[in-house]
Amino acid sequence: MDEQSASTPARVEEAQQRDENDSLAAFATRFDLPDDLYLDGNSLGPVSDTAEEALTDALEQWREQGIRGWSESDPPWFWYGERLGEQLAPLVGADPDECVATGTTTVNIHTLVGTFLDTLDESDPRGVLVNDLDFPTDHYAIRAQLRQRGLDPDEHLHLVESRDGRTIETDDIVDAMDEYEIGIVFMPSVLYRSGQLFDIETITREAHRRDILAGFDLAHSVGVVPHNLSSHGVDFAVWCSYKYLNAGPGAVAGLYVNERHFGTTPALAGWWGHEKETQFDMNLTFTQAETAGAWQISAVPILNAAPLFGSLELVHEADIERIREKSLELTAYLIDLVDEVLSPYGCSVGTPREPARRGGHVAIEHPEAYRLSQALRDHGAIVDFRQPNVVRVCPAPLYVGFEDVLEFVQLLAAILEDERYTAYDTEPSGVT
Ligand SMILES: Cc1ncc(COP(=O)(O)O)c(C=O)c1O
User: Which of 153, 171, 247, 282 could form an SS bridge with 143, CB 3.0 to 4.6 Å?
Assistant: First the structure.
Protein backbone atom coordinates (compact mmCIF):
# COMPACT_ATOMS: atom_id res chain seq x y z
CA MET A 1 0.00 0.00 0.00
CA ASP A 2 3.02 2.29 0.43
CA GLU A 3 3.32 3.49 -3.15
CA GLN A 4 -0.42 4.19 -2.97
CA SER A 5 0.09 6.31 0.13
CA ALA A 6 -0.46 10.01 -0.38
CA SER A 7 2.54 10.93 1.74
CA THR A 8 5.35 9.44 -0.33
CA PRO A 9 8.22 11.95 -0.66
CA ALA A 10 7.92 11.85 -4.45
CA ARG A 11 4.29 12.91 -4.28
CA VAL A 12 5.01 15.73 -1.82
CA GLU A 13 7.87 16.97 -3.97
CA GLU A 14 5.74 16.89 -7.10
CA ALA A 15 2.94 18.87 -5.43
CA GLN A 16 5.42 21.45 -4.13
CA GLN A 17 6.97 21.74 -7.58
CA ARG A 18 3.59 22.37 -9.14
CA ASP A 19 2.87 25.10 -6.58
CA GLU A 20 6.21 26.70 -7.36
CA ASN A 21 5.38 26.80 -11.06
CA ASP A 22 1.88 28.15 -10.49
CA SER A 23 1.49 31.76 -11.61
CA LEU A 24 -1.60 32.14 -9.37
CA ALA A 25 0.03 30.81 -6.18
CA ALA A 26 0.66 34.28 -4.73
CA PHE A 27 -3.06 35.12 -4.74
CA ALA A 28 -3.50 32.89 -1.68
CA THR A 29 -1.78 35.54 0.43
CA ARG A 30 -4.62 37.95 -0.40
CA PHE A 31 -7.21 35.81 1.42
CA ASP A 32 -7.94 35.10 5.08
CA LEU A 33 -8.92 31.46 5.28
CA PRO A 34 -11.09 30.31 8.19
CA ASP A 35 -9.21 27.01 8.38
CA ASP A 36 -6.04 25.36 7.10
CA LEU A 37 -7.69 23.64 4.15
CA TYR A 38 -10.62 25.68 2.94
CA LEU A 39 -12.18 23.54 0.22
CA ASP A 40 -15.67 24.97 0.35
CA GLY A 41 -15.38 27.97 -1.94
CA ASN A 42 -18.24 26.66 -4.06
CA SER A 43 -20.51 27.22 -1.06
CA LEU A 44 -19.00 30.38 0.39
CA GLY A 45 -15.77 31.98 -0.77
CA PRO A 46 -13.43 33.48 1.87
CA VAL A 47 -12.67 37.14 2.47
CA SER A 48 -9.87 38.82 0.53
CA ASP A 49 -7.95 41.97 1.40
CA THR A 50 -9.52 43.83 -1.52
CA ALA A 51 -13.08 42.78 -0.60
CA GLU A 52 -12.54 43.89 2.97
CA GLU A 53 -11.10 47.20 1.83
CA ALA A 54 -14.05 47.84 -0.49
CA LEU A 55 -16.48 47.09 2.33
CA THR A 56 -14.61 49.36 4.74
CA ASP A 57 -14.58 52.12 2.13
CA ALA A 58 -18.36 51.84 1.70
CA LEU A 59 -18.81 52.01 5.45
CA GLU A 60 -16.66 55.12 5.62
CA GLN A 61 -18.65 56.69 2.77
CA TRP A 62 -21.82 55.99 4.69
CA ARG A 63 -20.32 57.52 7.85
CA GLU A 64 -18.94 60.61 6.10
CA GLN A 65 -21.41 61.23 3.30
CA GLY A 66 -24.68 59.78 4.53
CA ILE A 67 -27.34 60.26 1.87
CA ARG A 68 -24.85 62.05 -0.39
CA GLY A 69 -23.14 58.68 -0.94
CA TRP A 70 -25.77 57.85 -3.54
CA SER A 71 -24.33 60.49 -5.84
CA GLU A 72 -20.94 61.49 -4.40
CA SER A 73 -19.24 58.24 -3.45
CA ASP A 74 -16.78 56.65 -5.83
CA PRO A 75 -18.42 55.01 -7.70
CA PRO A 76 -21.76 56.62 -6.78
CA TRP A 77 -23.96 54.09 -4.99
CA PHE A 78 -26.74 54.97 -7.43
CA TRP A 79 -24.75 53.29 -10.22
CA TYR A 80 -23.37 50.32 -8.24
CA GLY A 81 -25.52 47.73 -10.06
CA GLU A 82 -24.49 48.95 -13.49
CA ARG A 83 -20.80 49.47 -12.61
CA LEU A 84 -20.59 45.98 -11.15
CA GLY A 85 -22.46 44.64 -14.18
CA GLU A 86 -19.76 46.10 -16.42
CA GLN A 87 -17.12 44.24 -14.44
CA LEU A 88 -19.09 41.01 -14.37
CA ALA A 89 -19.71 41.06 -18.12
CA PRO A 90 -16.27 39.76 -19.22
CA LEU A 91 -16.65 36.78 -16.87
CA VAL A 92 -19.85 35.64 -18.57
CA GLY A 93 -18.96 36.82 -22.08
CA ALA A 94 -21.54 39.56 -22.35
CA ASP A 95 -21.74 43.23 -23.29
CA PRO A 96 -21.50 45.53 -20.26
CA ASP A 97 -25.12 46.65 -20.47
CA GLU A 98 -26.35 43.04 -20.65
CA CYS A 99 -25.30 42.47 -17.02
CA VAL A 100 -26.26 44.01 -13.72
CA ALA A 101 -25.58 43.20 -10.08
CA THR A 102 -28.88 42.96 -8.27
CA GLY A 103 -31.06 40.99 -5.90
CA THR A 104 -30.42 37.35 -5.14
CA THR A 105 -30.24 34.33 -7.39
CA THR A 106 -33.69 33.08 -6.46
CA VAL A 107 -35.34 36.48 -6.86
CA ASN A 108 -33.61 36.89 -10.21
CA ILE A 109 -34.95 33.50 -11.33
CA HIS A 110 -38.42 34.67 -10.32
CA THR A 111 -38.22 37.88 -12.30
CA LEU A 112 -36.51 36.46 -15.40
CA VAL A 113 -38.51 33.25 -15.75
CA GLY A 114 -41.65 35.28 -15.05
CA THR A 115 -40.64 37.88 -17.64
CA PHE A 116 -40.02 35.32 -20.34
CA LEU A 117 -43.15 33.31 -19.55
CA ASP A 118 -45.02 36.57 -20.14
CA THR A 119 -43.49 36.87 -23.63
CA LEU A 120 -45.17 33.60 -24.63
CA ASP A 121 -48.65 33.77 -26.15
CA GLU A 122 -51.50 31.65 -24.83
CA SER A 123 -51.11 29.65 -28.04
CA ASP A 124 -47.35 29.09 -27.46
CA PRO A 125 -46.05 26.11 -25.55
CA ARG A 126 -45.49 27.44 -22.04
CA GLY A 127 -43.77 24.49 -20.38
CA VAL A 128 -40.42 25.02 -18.67
CA LEU A 129 -37.74 22.35 -19.02
CA VAL A 130 -35.44 21.71 -16.04
CA ASN A 131 -33.71 18.59 -14.73
CA ASP A 132 -34.10 16.30 -11.76
CA LEU A 133 -30.66 17.07 -10.29
CA ASP A 134 -31.21 20.82 -10.07
CA PHE A 135 -30.67 22.91 -6.97
CA PRO A 136 -34.20 22.95 -5.48
CA THR A 137 -34.69 26.72 -5.28
CA ASP A 138 -34.80 26.90 -9.10
CA HIS A 139 -37.81 24.58 -9.16
CA TYR A 140 -39.54 26.32 -6.28
CA ALA A 141 -39.26 29.68 -8.06
CA ILE A 142 -40.31 28.39 -11.48
CA ARG A 143 -43.28 26.51 -10.06
CA ALA A 144 -44.39 29.68 -8.30
CA GLN A 145 -44.08 31.69 -11.54
CA LEU A 146 -46.11 29.09 -13.43
CA ARG A 147 -48.81 29.11 -10.73
CA GLN A 148 -49.01 32.90 -10.86
CA ARG A 149 -49.88 32.63 -14.55
CA GLY A 150 -52.59 30.09 -13.88
CA LEU A 151 -50.42 27.25 -15.21
CA ASP A 152 -50.35 24.01 -13.22
CA PRO A 153 -46.68 23.36 -12.36
CA ASP A 154 -47.29 19.61 -12.36
CA GLU A 155 -48.26 19.90 -16.01
CA HIS A 156 -45.90 22.63 -17.13
CA LEU A 157 -42.63 21.96 -15.32
CA HIS A 158 -40.88 19.12 -17.17
CA LEU A 159 -37.86 17.33 -15.77
CA VAL A 160 -35.08 15.76 -17.79
CA GLU A 161 -34.21 12.64 -15.86
CA SER A 162 -30.67 11.68 -15.00
CA ARG A 163 -29.58 8.24 -16.19
CA ASP A 164 -27.03 7.71 -13.43
CA GLY A 165 -28.13 10.02 -10.58
CA ARG A 166 -25.07 12.20 -11.17
CA THR A 167 -25.23 13.76 -14.60
CA ILE A 168 -27.64 14.90 -17.30
CA GLU A 169 -27.03 13.98 -20.94
CA THR A 170 -27.27 16.84 -23.45
CA ASP A 171 -29.05 14.46 -25.84
CA ASP A 172 -31.72 13.85 -23.21
CA ILE A 173 -32.25 17.61 -22.82
CA VAL A 174 -32.65 17.96 -26.58
CA ASP A 175 -34.99 14.96 -26.81
CA ALA A 176 -37.14 16.45 -24.04
CA MET A 177 -37.46 19.69 -26.02
CA ASP A 178 -39.25 17.60 -28.67
CA GLU A 179 -41.13 15.36 -26.28
CA TYR A 180 -42.84 18.12 -24.25
CA GLU A 181 -44.47 21.45 -25.09
CA ILE A 182 -41.61 23.72 -24.01
CA GLY A 183 -41.34 27.51 -24.09
CA ILE A 184 -38.26 27.92 -21.88
CA VAL A 185 -35.36 25.63 -21.07
CA PHE A 186 -33.68 26.55 -17.79
CA MET A 187 -30.56 24.61 -16.87
CA PRO A 188 -27.62 25.03 -14.51
CA SER A 189 -24.14 25.66 -15.93
CA VAL A 190 -22.73 23.24 -13.37
CA LEU A 191 -24.68 20.74 -11.26
CA TYR A 192 -24.31 21.60 -7.61
CA ARG A 193 -23.70 18.02 -6.51
CA SER A 194 -21.66 16.18 -9.13
CA GLY A 195 -20.01 19.26 -10.64
CA GLN A 196 -20.98 18.34 -14.22
CA LEU A 197 -20.50 21.29 -16.60
CA PHE A 198 -23.32 21.65 -19.15
CA ASP A 199 -22.85 22.40 -22.82
CA ILE A 200 -24.50 25.83 -22.87
CA GLU A 201 -23.77 26.42 -26.55
CA THR A 202 -25.47 23.22 -27.77
CA ILE A 203 -28.44 23.54 -25.42
CA THR A 204 -29.03 27.14 -26.54
CA ARG A 205 -28.62 26.32 -30.24
CA GLU A 206 -31.00 23.36 -30.05
CA ALA A 207 -33.51 25.38 -28.01
CA HIS A 208 -33.47 28.25 -30.51
CA ARG A 209 -33.94 25.84 -33.43
CA ARG A 210 -37.25 24.95 -31.80
CA ASP A 211 -38.22 28.53 -30.87
CA ILE A 212 -37.51 27.80 -27.22
CA LEU A 213 -35.87 30.41 -24.98
CA ALA A 214 -32.69 29.36 -23.13
CA GLY A 215 -31.81 30.52 -19.61
CA PHE A 216 -29.12 29.32 -17.21
CA ASP A 217 -28.27 29.33 -13.50
CA LEU A 218 -24.53 30.01 -13.39
CA ALA A 219 -24.20 29.89 -9.58
CA HIS A 220 -21.58 27.14 -9.71
CA SER A 221 -19.49 28.46 -12.56
CA VAL A 222 -19.20 32.24 -12.42
CA GLY A 223 -15.64 33.11 -11.47
CA VAL A 224 -14.19 29.69 -12.23
CA VAL A 225 -15.44 28.81 -15.73
CA PRO A 226 -15.42 31.45 -18.48
CA HIS A 227 -18.67 31.83 -20.43
CA ASN A 228 -19.70 33.20 -23.82
CA LEU A 229 -23.35 34.01 -23.20
CA SER A 230 -23.72 36.71 -25.85
CA SER A 231 -22.01 34.88 -28.67
CA HIS A 232 -23.99 31.74 -27.87
CA GLY A 233 -27.15 33.84 -27.94
CA VAL A 234 -28.26 32.76 -24.45
CA ASP A 235 -31.49 34.60 -23.61
CA PHE A 236 -30.98 35.14 -19.88
CA ALA A 237 -28.90 33.97 -16.92
CA VAL A 238 -28.55 34.42 -13.16
CA TRP A 239 -25.76 33.78 -10.65
CA CYS A 240 -24.61 34.49 -7.12
CA SER A 241 -21.44 36.27 -5.98
CA TYR A 242 -20.71 34.48 -2.74
CA LYS A 243 -19.12 31.33 -4.19
CA TYR A 244 -16.17 31.70 -6.60
CA LEU A 245 -16.55 35.49 -6.65
CA ASN A 246 -15.85 35.66 -2.89
CA ALA A 247 -18.10 38.68 -2.28
CA GLY A 248 -19.39 37.48 1.10
CA PRO A 249 -22.41 35.71 2.59
CA GLY A 250 -25.64 36.95 1.01
CA ALA A 251 -23.75 39.23 -1.39
CA VAL A 252 -25.66 40.90 -4.20
CA ALA A 253 -26.29 38.51 -7.10
CA GLY A 254 -26.03 39.09 -10.86
CA LEU A 255 -28.11 38.65 -13.96
CA TYR A 256 -27.73 38.78 -17.72
CA VAL A 257 -30.37 39.55 -20.34
CA ASN A 258 -29.44 39.37 -24.01
CA GLU A 259 -29.73 42.80 -25.61
CA ARG A 260 -32.36 41.61 -28.09
CA HIS A 261 -34.73 41.40 -25.10
CA PHE A 262 -34.13 44.95 -23.87
CA GLY A 263 -37.50 46.64 -23.61
CA THR A 264 -39.31 43.45 -22.55
CA THR A 265 -41.42 44.24 -19.49
CA PRO A 266 -39.90 42.87 -16.24
CA ALA A 267 -42.24 40.56 -14.34
CA LEU A 268 -41.22 42.02 -10.99
CA ALA A 269 -40.81 45.69 -11.74
CA GLY A 270 -39.41 48.15 -9.21
CA TRP A 271 -38.11 51.68 -9.17
CA TRP A 272 -34.47 50.60 -9.46
CA GLY A 273 -35.21 49.22 -12.93
CA HIS A 274 -36.42 52.62 -14.10
CA GLU A 275 -34.45 54.60 -16.66
CA LYS A 276 -31.73 56.10 -14.48
CA GLU A 277 -31.81 59.61 -15.86
CA THR A 278 -35.47 60.15 -14.90
CA GLN A 279 -35.77 57.78 -11.92
CA PHE A 280 -35.93 60.63 -9.44
CA ASP A 281 -38.67 62.43 -11.35
CA MET A 282 -40.81 59.98 -9.37
CA ASN A 283 -43.20 59.48 -12.24
CA LEU A 284 -45.90 56.96 -11.44
CA THR A 285 -45.45 55.44 -14.90
CA PHE A 286 -42.60 52.94 -15.12
CA THR A 287 -40.17 53.79 -17.92
CA GLN A 288 -37.77 50.89 -17.87
CA ALA A 289 -34.04 51.17 -18.44
CA GLU A 290 -32.96 50.12 -21.93
CA THR A 291 -30.41 47.71 -20.46
CA ALA A 292 -30.35 44.63 -18.23
CA GLY A 293 -30.62 47.22 -15.44
CA ALA A 294 -34.38 47.16 -16.07
CA TRP A 295 -34.55 43.88 -14.12
CA GLN A 296 -33.38 45.51 -10.88
CA ILE A 297 -36.16 45.83 -8.34
CA SER A 298 -35.01 47.63 -5.19
CA ALA A 299 -32.18 49.98 -4.25
CA VAL A 300 -28.79 48.23 -4.33
CA PRO A 301 -27.81 46.79 -0.92
CA ILE A 302 -24.58 48.78 -0.77
CA LEU A 303 -22.91 46.85 2.05
CA ASN A 304 -23.73 43.56 0.30
CA ALA A 305 -22.44 44.86 -2.99
CA ALA A 306 -19.28 46.80 -2.10
CA PRO A 307 -17.09 43.73 -1.40
CA LEU A 308 -17.81 42.50 -4.93
CA PHE A 309 -15.85 45.45 -6.37
CA GLY A 310 -12.85 44.33 -4.34
CA SER A 311 -13.16 40.63 -5.00
CA LEU A 312 -13.64 41.16 -8.75
CA GLU A 313 -10.36 43.07 -8.82
CA LEU A 314 -8.56 39.85 -7.89
CA VAL A 315 -10.48 37.71 -10.37
CA HIS A 316 -9.61 40.12 -13.20
CA GLU A 317 -6.01 40.41 -12.08
CA ALA A 318 -5.70 36.62 -12.09
CA ASP A 319 -7.61 36.33 -15.39
CA ILE A 320 -10.56 33.99 -15.79
CA GLU A 321 -8.84 31.88 -18.49
CA ARG A 322 -5.88 31.17 -16.21
CA ILE A 323 -8.26 30.51 -13.29
CA ARG A 324 -10.07 27.89 -15.39
CA GLU A 325 -6.78 26.35 -16.49
CA LYS A 326 -5.57 25.98 -12.90
CA SER A 327 -8.98 24.77 -11.75
CA LEU A 328 -8.85 21.95 -14.29
CA GLU A 329 -5.32 21.06 -13.22
CA LEU A 330 -6.35 20.96 -9.55
CA THR A 331 -9.49 18.91 -10.11
CA ALA A 332 -7.60 16.48 -12.38
CA TYR A 333 -4.95 16.11 -9.68
CA LEU A 334 -7.58 15.48 -7.02
CA ILE A 335 -9.39 12.94 -9.21
CA ASP A 336 -6.12 11.06 -9.81
CA LEU A 337 -5.41 10.99 -6.07
CA VAL A 338 -8.91 9.69 -5.30
CA ASP A 339 -8.31 6.87 -7.80
CA GLU A 340 -4.85 6.05 -6.54
CA VAL A 341 -5.04 6.66 -2.80
CA LEU A 342 -8.68 6.74 -1.69
CA SER A 343 -10.38 4.14 -3.87
CA PRO A 344 -9.04 1.24 -1.75
CA TYR A 345 -11.09 2.77 1.10
CA GLY A 346 -14.30 2.76 -0.94
CA CYS A 347 -14.15 6.30 -2.33
CA SER A 348 -15.05 6.99 -5.93
CA VAL A 349 -15.31 10.02 -8.19
CA GLY A 350 -18.85 11.19 -9.00
CA THR A 351 -17.71 14.03 -11.29
CA PRO A 352 -17.28 13.68 -15.05
CA ARG A 353 -13.64 13.08 -15.90
CA GLU A 354 -13.61 14.91 -19.24
CA PRO A 355 -12.36 18.48 -18.66
CA ALA A 356 -15.09 19.90 -20.91
CA ARG A 357 -17.74 18.38 -18.65
CA ARG A 358 -16.21 19.38 -15.33
CA GLY A 359 -16.84 22.56 -13.30
CA GLY A 360 -14.73 23.71 -10.36
CA HIS A 361 -15.43 21.07 -7.73
CA VAL A 362 -15.15 17.31 -7.32
CA ALA A 363 -17.72 14.98 -5.78
CA ILE A 364 -16.10 12.20 -3.80
CA GLU A 365 -18.64 9.48 -3.16
CA HIS A 366 -18.54 7.22 -0.11
CA PRO A 367 -21.33 5.56 1.89
CA GLU A 368 -20.05 7.38 5.01
CA ALA A 369 -19.83 10.76 3.27
CA TYR A 370 -21.65 12.60 6.04
CA ARG A 371 -19.50 11.34 8.88
CA LEU A 372 -16.36 11.78 6.79
CA SER A 373 -17.23 15.41 6.09
CA GLN A 374 -17.75 16.02 9.82
CA ALA A 375 -14.43 14.40 10.71
CA LEU A 376 -12.66 16.37 7.98
CA ARG A 377 -14.07 19.64 9.31
CA ASP A 378 -12.90 18.83 12.82
CA HIS A 379 -9.41 18.22 11.48
CA GLY A 380 -9.11 21.51 9.61
CA ALA A 381 -10.41 20.56 6.15
CA ILE A 382 -13.62 22.40 5.32
CA VAL A 383 -15.73 20.56 2.77
CA ASP A 384 -19.43 19.98 2.54
CA PHE A 385 -21.71 17.01 2.45
CA ARG A 386 -24.44 16.60 -0.11
CA GLN A 387 -27.10 13.92 0.09
CA PRO A 388 -26.89 11.00 -0.10
CA ASN A 389 -23.19 10.11 -0.31
CA VAL A 390 -21.12 13.04 -1.56
CA VAL A 391 -18.20 14.86 0.02
CA ARG A 392 -17.96 17.98 -2.13
CA VAL A 393 -14.43 19.28 -2.48
CA CYS A 394 -13.63 22.60 -4.11
CA PRO A 395 -10.00 23.44 -4.82
CA ALA A 396 -10.67 27.09 -5.68
CA PRO A 397 -7.71 28.27 -7.79
CA LEU A 398 -7.18 31.64 -6.11
CA TYR A 399 -6.30 30.24 -2.70
CA VAL A 400 -5.87 26.46 -2.96
CA GLY A 401 -2.66 24.85 -4.18
CA PHE A 402 -1.54 21.38 -5.20
CA GLU A 403 0.07 20.66 -1.83
CA ASP A 404 -3.23 21.60 -0.16
CA VAL A 405 -5.03 19.03 -2.31
CA LEU A 406 -2.44 16.42 -1.39
CA GLU A 407 -2.75 17.26 2.31
CA PHE A 408 -6.51 16.94 2.07
CA VAL A 409 -6.18 13.48 0.51
CA GLN A 410 -3.64 12.46 3.18
CA LEU A 411 -6.05 13.57 5.88
CA LEU A 412 -9.03 11.78 4.36
CA ALA A 413 -6.94 8.60 3.93
CA ALA A 414 -5.91 8.78 7.60
CA ILE A 415 -9.52 9.28 8.74
CA LEU A 416 -10.61 6.28 6.67
CA GLU A 417 -7.66 4.17 7.78
CA ASP A 418 -8.25 4.55 11.54
CA GLU A 419 -12.03 4.88 11.16
CA ARG A 420 -12.08 8.12 13.15
CA TYR A 421 -15.33 9.06 11.39
CA THR A 422 -17.24 6.38 13.34
CA ALA A 423 -17.20 8.69 16.38
CA TYR A 424 -19.68 11.01 14.63
CA ASP A 425 -23.47 10.91 14.38
CA THR A 426 -24.81 9.31 11.26
CA GLU A 427 -27.67 11.77 10.84
CA PRO A 428 -27.09 15.13 9.17
CA SER A 429 -28.70 18.14 10.80
CA GLY A 430 -28.69 21.87 10.04
CA VAL A 431 -26.48 23.44 7.38
CA THR A 432 -24.19 20.90 5.76
C1 LIG B 1 -27.38 26.38 -8.39
C2 LIG B 1 -27.85 27.28 -7.29
N3 LIG B 1 -28.86 28.13 -7.52
C4 LIG B 1 -29.32 28.95 -6.54
C5 LIG B 1 -28.76 28.92 -5.27
C6 LIG B 1 -29.32 29.73 -4.12
O7 LIG B 1 -29.52 31.00 -4.40
P8 LIG B 1 -29.83 32.17 -3.33
O9 LIG B 1 -28.61 33.02 -3.40
O10 LIG B 1 -31.04 32.79 -3.86
O11 LIG B 1 -29.99 31.61 -1.97
C12 LIG B 1 -27.69 28.07 -5.02
C13 LIG B 1 -27.09 28.07 -3.67
O14 LIG B 1 -26.11 27.45 -3.38
C15 LIG B 1 -27.24 27.22 -6.05
O16 LIG B 1 -26.24 26.37 -5.81
Answer: 153
For the domain spanning 2-32+319-423, the CATH number is 3.90.1150.10
pTM score, whole prediction:
0.96
Residue 240 Cβ inside 6 Å of ligand 1? The answer reads: yes
Q: If you measure from the C-alpha of residue 243 to the centroid of ligand 1, how many angstroms do you get, rounded to a whole number?
A: 10
Cα–Cα distance for residue pair 135/124, rounded to 1 Å: 27
**pLDDT tens by residue, 1-45:** 444 677 789 999 999 999 999 999 999 999 999 888 999 999 999
Known catalytic membership, residue 134: no
What is 52-316's CATH number? 3.40.640.10
Query: Could you tell which of 42, 240, 386 is best to mutate to test the pocket of ligand 1, judged by most ligand atoms within 8 Å of the CB?
Result: 240
For the question of residue 392 being annotated catalytic, the response is: yes
Rama region for 197: left / alpha / beta (φ>0; ψ in -120 to 50; rest) = beta
List C-alpha distances in Å: 101 to 89, 117, 167, 307: 10, 22, 30, 12
Q: What is the DSSP letter of 392?
A: E
Name the residue among 361, 307, 411 with its Cα closest to residue 49.
307
